[in-house]
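Researcher: Re-running this chain for the archive, since the previous output was lost when a drive failed. Same request as before.
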Amino acid sequence: MNSREPTDAQKQRRGLSRMWHAFGYSLAGLRAGWRETAFRQEALAAMVMVPLAFWVGRSWTEVSVLCGTVLIVMIVELLNTGVESAIDRIGPEWHELSKRAKDMGSAAVLLSLLLCAGTWLAAMASRWL
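Model: Regenerated structure tokens:
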């Protein structure tokens, strides 16, 4: 590495080059997420639920909300995994703040799952009851 090269070259990029590299980093993040069991399960569920949303939803608004709640679960799972990875990077020893950070990430995933389930149950009840 050239001693004049910045530590994070992405900070120096501009325009399309920055966007192209950012897209590559995002794909790498999705690949890393795929190696996590919880994210993989949620992604597989999304592959069923997103097309199903077009049948359950009665309008584009309902379809958007149903798809959105599924994507929110996946987004929160990726963020939770990022928090857990950062905490694990610091060290393996137990610490109250590390536990709190991991617990709060887990709680965020739980809340997103409850939001998704509640939205889907309400949409199905509205359609068939």
